[in-house]
Amino acid sequence: MKTREFTAVVLATFVLILLGDGVVASVVLGPKGPAGNYNWNTIAFGWGFAVAVSGLIVGADNNPAITLANAVRGDTPWSKVIPTFIGSLLGGFLGALAVYLVYRDGLISAGMPNIWTSGAGNIYDASAKHAGTYSLLTASVAEFFGTLVLMWSVLAVGDKKNAAMAKAGPFVVGGVILAIGLCLGGPSGYSLNPARDLAPRVFGLLAGSKGLFEGLYWLIPPVLVPCLACVAATFSYDAFLNSAKSTSGEPIAQASLQRS
To answer: How far apart are CA 78 and CA 212, in angstroms?
Structure first.
């Protein structure tokens, strides 16, 4: 991978995490409520626009799971997979650092809450309020289907049958992220992207947030499941939905919309 390509991956992920984790920090630390007073709609819209802006400004790969799936598909050289993983993790770490610098006073005052990662959502009980959290299995299932929809959407934007929307690809994918967040994001926090979760999680640990690497949750739903789901989505899309493959027997080239 050329230096310019690697730098683009770093910058794309940097912008994604700067805006995505930034909206979480804004909601958690905002003056309209105490720390922990989440507004899910605000966060979902913020992440959707973070994806769109990242794609509009940089337009480079920033989702290692999609990069891996495209390598399996034959659209991305395997030689670019590891550099993309490294670049996206570096960009995610730097994005988390930038969020820390922007919200440093509030984060320190609030005891360094976790605004860095996705995670199992609370189960609401009207009689006991937050009575528990979603299980590892349920969070993994939610992450699988959410990432499946994301990958199908990325492939659809690059499909010749949707050529008219190609230029609007970043906003289309951003809208898909918004829909996934609103409709499927509750059980797992919808990571959909190993770099989106793992790199800020490492920074959060160094910054002083607690409990970020307890158990195996940090590895399975936000990191391994998106990789598996992207590969599964690629095979299923080519088998049933790919317009080029259905007519010529060959898969189409993937558009450069690898973000979440």
So the answer is: 31
